[in-house]
Design brief:
The protein is α/β, with parallel strands linked by helices. The protein contains 14 helices and 26 strands.
Length: 545
């Protein structure tokens, strides 16, 4: 892979607070569905066949993400990391899934792990995105697919000797979850095998035509010589995926279909990812954001924080946290959010993160790209959704359009497609109304909560303590070495004048900021007086930001 040279950017500005992945506010988007920054790359490989509704490429790309970074959209939203769907080259042909043709617009149908798909952009585009994000203090999380290739078609041959074509997973045991295919015609990589295999003939032919066969094979030879790994399928893919870390300085990976791969594979992947991240930092000392290690979060489908560290396959329990993962995506919150009590939710997560999951974290979400039963699918509770997600202990995942009430119910769609419409920029610009809520007002709510979380590590990583039950107020406190942070939050409070008890959190005479009303307030007699039109107060030490 060539190392592109992004345009020169100044070093990232210093911040008064450390970045913690346990408190991260991660924005998740489908690359093809967010922003079209380059209309010249909208059609490649003759991908022009008609498709089922929302199952073709729509033009979103890497340049579009970079545009929104440089416009400050993510800064205003308080985003500290961006995770986007895979951008490696996808199969070229469409696949008929019963309702019509589908292309690999989503990024999970890999044809070549070593090359970016031109529909998404170029290697230089990716280098520029990472550089721009880092300048804004935003980390970049790529999406790792090791479990499977894209479906086989006449244009996209089967990965002979690399993958199985069946049976389909039945999820009755460990073996029937890992050594199987997720769906028909989705070749499942022999990740459990140590048997050496050659590169598929079609891939060598492809590289030869592109003029890079010798370079790619030489890099593979060097990798296997350095590591001593057998030339088994998983190690080729690990090499290719960790190249993106070493060459671009990406900060983390979200690992797709993690429970469908032997947990030891993720430990191997993490070992090479850590090495690649160290190599990048050593070669780019002036660009390093902080001392954080590489970040890995796993999609162990139906992992619930209530279960602690272990995932139960029925005949085997696995601790994915002990196999390379800093966090797992938490499938509990979308159900917990149905509870009316904020305290019931927040105290539950605080307890689990301080006991069974101590030293690890979870990535909470309320909507996603493949969850047909999200919280508030009809977008009738966008303010409540933002409050519960962004104030919950643990890291937060904002799904693109959560903050703008993008519709999750699109007529004519089947399955996951209804969750994957193009970002509703036009509705936002027009301040359109959905279910009685103006889009701009919803965005403002998410922005205030997001910036509060980003500027105060205590929100997601601190210890939670309820202060008063009615009106509901709580504090969060975080300490690491000499650094301390604390916040006080009031929810469902009366509009107008209100008083919050802050003794033991903020000293008398201190200035605090209400991140919701924007007021700078003086602590007096262990209390803070707030006069605002909202029933929510977000108090943090005033840092003159």
């Amino acid at each position: 892979m060539p190392v592109p040279r992004p345009k020169t950017l100044p070093n990232p500005p210093p911040t008064p607070h450390p970045f913690l992945w346990q408190n991260a506010n991660i924005y998740f988007l489908l690359t093809d569905r967010f922003q079209n920054g380059d209309q010249t790359n909208d059609v490649n490989f003759s991908r022009s066949a008609s498709t089922a509704t929302l199952r073709g490429f729509m033009g979103g790309d890497i340049k579009g993400i970079t545009q929104k970074i440089e416009e400050g959209y993510f800064d205003r939203l308080g985003i500290s990391a961006i995770w986007f769907t895979p951008v490696v080259e996808q199969i070229h042909a469409p696949v008929n899934e019963g309702t019509g043709n589908t292309y690999g617009f989503h990024g999970y149908w890999t044809k070549d792990w070593t090359r970016l798909d031109p529909n998404f952009g170029t290697e230089n585009d990716l280098a520029q995105l990472v550089a721009s994000a880092h300048q804004h203090g935003i980390r970049i999380v790529l999406d790792a697919v090791i479990n499977h290739t894209g479906p086989a078609t006449e244009q996209d041959p089967f990965w002979t000797d690399w993958a199985r074509s069946g049976p389909r997973c039945t999820y009755q045991s460990y073996a029937t979850t890992t050594a199987c295919g997720l769906v028909d015609n989705l070749p499942d990589i022999f990740t459990e095998s140590d048997k050496p295999v050659e590169l598929p003939a079609f891939l060598k032919d492809k590289w030869r035509k592109e003029g890079r066969l010798e370079k790619e094979t030489a890099e593979l030879d060097a990798f296997f010589k350095r590591t001593g790994y057998p030339r088994a399928p998983r190690f080729y893919i690990i090499k290719w995926l960790t190249d993106y870390i070493r060459e671009y300085g990406v900060d983390g990976y979200r690992c797709d279909t993690a429970k469908h791969i032997e947990e030891s594979v993720w430990a191997e992947f993490r070992k090479e990812a850590d090495r690649a991240f160290r190599d990048w930092k050593k070669a780019n000392r002036s660009k390093v954001l902080d001392n954080n290690d590489f970040y890995m979060v796993g999609e162990v489908y139906n992992y619930f924080v209530s279960g602690g560290r272990l995932y139960d396959f029925g005949d085997k329990k696995v601790d994915f946290f002990a196999n390379g993962f800093d966090a797992l995506i938490n499938f509990d919150l979308k159900n917990d959010a149905q509870k009316p009590s904020y305290e019931a939710i927040f105290s539950k997560y605080d307890h689990l993160l301080r006991t069974e999951l101590k030293g690890k974290s979870v990535l909470n979400y309320l909507a996603s790209h493949d969850d047909g039963g999200p919280f508030d699918k009809e977008r009738k509770k966008p303010f409540e959704a933002g409050t519960k997600l962004l104030l919950c202990p643990g890291a937060a995942q904002v799904y693109y359009g959560d903050e703008t009430s993008r519709s999750l119910e699109i007529p004519g769609t089947e399955g996951d497609a209804t969750l994957r419409s193009f970002m509703n920029w036009e509705e936002l610009a027009a301040n359109a109304e959905r279910n009685g809520f103006k889009t701009q007002n919803v965005l403002t709510h998410w922005q205030k909560l997001g910036r509060f979380r980003k500027e105060h590590p205590a929100v997601g990583a601190g210890t939670h303590t309820m202060l008063t039950a009615s009106p509901y107020t709580f504090k969060r406190a975080y300490r690491s070495g000499k650094y301390t942070d604390a916040v006080v939050v009031g929810l469902d409070m009366p509009k107008g004048k209100k008083t919050l008890e802050v003794a033991g959190v903020f000293a008398d005479g201190a200035m605090v900021n209400d991140y919701y009303s924007g007021q700078k307030l003086l602590v007096s007699g262990g209390k803070v007086m707030v006069d605002s039109e909202w029933g929510i107060v977000l108090l943090g030490q005033y840092l003159n930001l």
